[in-house]
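Quarterly update from the structural biology core.
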Amino acid sequence: MSMTFTPLTPNFAAEVAGIDLTRPLSRDQVQAIDDGMDRWGVLVFHGQRFDDETQLAFSRNFGDLEISSGAEMSKPEENRLRVEMADISNLDAQNRVRAADDRKRLGSLGNRLWHSDASFRAVPAKYSLLSARIVPPTGGNTEFADMRSAYDALDEATKAEIEDLITEHSNAYSREMIGFPKAAYGAEFQDKLRPVRHRLVRYDPDTGRKSLYLSAHIGAVLGWPIPEARAYIRDLMEHATQRQFVYAHTWKVWDLVIWDNRTTMHRARRYNDLTDIRDMRRSTIRGEGMTVQQAA
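Predicted structure, tokenized:
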């Protein structure tokens, strides 16, 4: 049986059937998934019974793996998973549900803001691959926003205004938005919070399309006063997350969703994380270069 792609919205996200991703793939199968990512930006696969090893093996088909930023900014004994796997859960290292005032729980609430994974790195992420191991009975969906269609819908004056703008991204900016102070990360991790620079408009030579590169991690526009920059970015975020640009995914156990961080934003939705378990495990493909030269 060959792979089939069924659109989930007219222009964005597709469901893929006819393949077992836990087994070794042929070059043609990997290329078909890559081509599907270029076309749809988000791909949904059901019934993929991954463990961590098979998920990482599948992920390596698309490039080098990133080390999880959560693992980088934690003590080794605090990590529940291996460092290549981002722990998108409400569980601690002993598989207990985190308490309401748990520092990691509070920081992870930033995932409920619209963002692009690892835009706080000088070389930002390419693909993210999220596997659902345990899902809550209600809530906990993930929403994805199509940054290519959002760019296309801008008027020509706005496109001209933003064409060469450079933004600054940091994990600290997004966490400060929800009241999580930069100092809470600890003195030893402050260097990892330094802002990096990215273009606001990205161009994909493979598809010939432009997209907005937006994220809650943005805290500044180079050359602009901070209040003006943040108000403008908020306006663009509101435009880019209108319902016509968004696909909302309701998770089932063993779903795998792949998305392209260069052309999408996403956010997690609220669930009762003090009683229900949500165990999601993300592998992330490192990007292929900077979007703009970094400051010295």
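The longest helix spans residues 226-240.
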